[in-house]
């Protein structure tokens, strides 16, 4: 039910922005989601469809832009995109630690009318 809360706050932000811009309708919301976040696109869309009913955002499309997670090697400092398996540094084989890259969830842009 994690998606419920994030979808609600995302919708609130989008509506605020649209209101400020004097929009009559939100056509599309482009979201950035980090690969490490546990948010599931389909759930966000499902909650969004329910919550946006009767608002400026009703019927808006959601576009998801997934950001690859980046790790930093504890041994040599190398920053690398997380390999499909494990977290090992491609340079020295050391243990990679998560960075902030990959935990994103925010609105990149809105398309309004
Ligand atoms: Zn390394």
UniProtKB/TrEMBL annotation:
Keyword check for Zinc: yes
An example molecular function term from Gene Ontology annotations: nickel cation binding
Residue sites binding Zn(2+) per the record: 73, 76, 89, 92
Gene Ontology process terms (BP): protein maturation
Zinc recorded as keyword: yes
Domain of life: Bacteria
Any matching Pfam family: HypA
Keywords: Metal-binding, Nickel, Zinc
InterPro entries: HypA/HybF (IPR000688)
Residues binding Ni(2+): 2
Function text: Involved in the maturation of [NiFe] hydrogenases. Required for nickel insertion into the metal center of the hydrogenase.
Family: Belongs to the HypA/HybF family.
NCBIfam families listed in its UniProt record: hypA
Name by which UniProt lists this protein: Hydrogenase maturation factor HypA
